[in-house]
């Protein structure tokens, strides 16, 4: 790369290591001096400037620093990581080096082109340790060479073509210039905002002009940054000769993308990109607090109508001049988690396999990064492959509730009760809990079971996805509710107007929710949950600020905010008119003041003549003092020569002492290592003692266990006799249950009557909805009147402006005359100042000369005094050398004593190990005896059960349907709700359970687990007896 740049006339600046030409001119573009100087200082002071640098992450405190320092910037190029190593890459517009750093770390040969010198210097500082990166300060249209590149990037650059490219159509000029620099199968990668992005329809300001609706209304002018829609961009690329163009949609946009959807991802009927899109809306740092509508509700409608790519907020485009395909046809979407600590950052791919099903693949982005979770309560594991589950994330239900006007805390409460029920079903399958409260302890691996990680299949079955984290200790259910609300709040762009009144903060929402759920939770408890979540984020993201502040307000948006904004705009226009009137009065006052200033000029001329005469006298006095100083300098030179010889002798002695110190340090280091080894051996002995104690305790337990097993054998014989007696009592209980069934039938008739009354209550509610619609129409009419008032005020401002222009035109002539007079006054003032300055300098120079003479005398005395001190210092150094030698002898004696101590401890360790081996042999013999007794118990049990089998099976097979239907553990409604496939087929739940359900290990009700019963009684499955029937016959 260096010879290429040299041949093109560029030279490497040795200080900045930037390639540039002598006549280099920067383009007029930056983020402001304060911002860019701050970024430059942060990068230059950082020890670690890598992509995932924790130092740089701490400085992401506002939008500019986040944009220039965040590791998430690189996500836009991660889909092409496999083609970058070894490729020749031209990056046009490197900015502050965020993308350049990624390209360099991928192993590409990077030429980073930047149009401003300051930004080029920052890019070089960010890549200072990468020899495969060269940075050039040059405007793109002036960069002309014969070198061809495999990849050229325009990340956030194409929209600025109108400002910095020549030609009738600057966009075409830029694209054709890029094409001329690509290899035949080279690729152009473009990232740019979509002019028709959905967030801009929602009221987000246009990124380059800061005004809402600026782009979608087409208000761009000639020399302005301009964005384009998909079809316009595609036409520009085709006209420039790029015949193969593939569009991707990064979300929330290309600047800090979380997800990237391919064209195939939008068209595949089995894949739902809506989950990735809607859950990334709030991740856009540039999204305003109030929007015209809720994007979370609009995106599903857009995707359903196949407009996802057309209305994406940004585009990622790969353009080629050949027909070679770039991306794999299997990939439907990419998702990145790069807000974490470096060892946990990951990439998730959604692929359409050759078999036609969709697979989810996960991998760590930095597989060689070392995790700091060892020996801590939190553990991390990544499932590399999983089957894609088509369905709806549980978090979508929360979004549907809170983004609509009129939502209530009660609805949110019911949502979280449902969440707890699902949580229990996923984590406590074999240990059902009747009621969960905030202190109910759930397994530590449930910390990652937030609603965003639970998907509900079309049949209603919940499944856990993306489970990475596990806590060593059980977790209270109250904390999981707290954590879920925090995570859900982060994905809500705007809440609807709530029906329930509560303080508009996160803390207010928590207090209201816990109260509605029936839990007594105070602020102290919530703050304890907050500290626990902060601890979790500190381990995962190494950033406590990742947790939202409890006092932060919820983001609400509705028409009331729009009306308020219009009112404020009217007030600002009225204020502007008042300011214009005051400006006219100020201009008239300035005219009067300028006339008075002209008369001062004549006095200035007379003062100048006097100052010139005083200047000549001062110059004569200076010459005399110069001769005195020369004599003093010669005397000082002689004394300094003598001092230098003394200092050389002192330096020699200091080297001798330094050698002695190093020798002592080495001996002390060896001694410290010996001490540490002794401590380690003492710990080993203590561990061995504890291990021996544990083995002896286990032996005692084994003896007790043998006795217990002998008692169990006797109990089993007695239990078999009791079972035969229970069989007779069951037949009497069946008759009682038949009367209960008749009572249930009468109760069903009463419920059907209540349903009819509820239907009659629906019609008044429909009238209330109609009234709400009329209220909305009134508000819209008020908005139209407000807009008319604004237009009237705007016309008044225009009239005022024309009046001001007339007055300002009259003032121009006055100002020209004033400026001429002012220049004359300024010239006179400068001449006076120059003469006065020269006089002051002469006086200061004379005083300086006099001080120098005095200083020279004092300097001679100091040097003579220093000579005496140096001789004393030399004698002290010699004494220190002798002391060091004695200290070395003492340390060597201590080393010998420590060596004897080590040998004694090692002998003790060997004795302990022999004792442990003897105990282990004894432990093994006890185990064998226990196994023999357990086999004896099993053989006795099987013998007794075989005697009952024939009589029991005959009774069970007579009428299993009747036994199941009358069982208190069979709940027909629960069975149909829990297994919707049975309900959809119209099957009788009792018949289905007896014939098929038990074999499929389905549960007959919430309080009976088929799988658990079969596991505890395996003979039931071998005999092909229905588990519930077996239980009713033997144990009820």
TrEMBL record:
Residues 90-188 form the Methyltransferase type domain. Pfam families: Methyltransf_12. It comes from the Bacteria. The keyword Zinc-finger does not apply. The keyword Coiled coil applies. Gene3D superfamilies: Vaccinia Virus protein VP39 (3.40.50.150). SUPFAM superfamilies: S-adenosyl-L-methionine-dependent methyltransferases. Residues 570-604 form a coiled coil. InterPro entries: Methyltransf_12, SAM-dependent_MTases_sf. PANTHER family: VIMENTIN-TYPE INTERMEDIATE FILAMENT-ASSOCIATED COILED-COIL PROTEIN (PTHR34707:SF1). This is Chromosome partition protein Smc. It comes from Legionella sainthelensi. The lineage of its organism: Bacteria, Pseudomonadati, Pseudomonadota, Gammaproteobacteria, Legionellales.
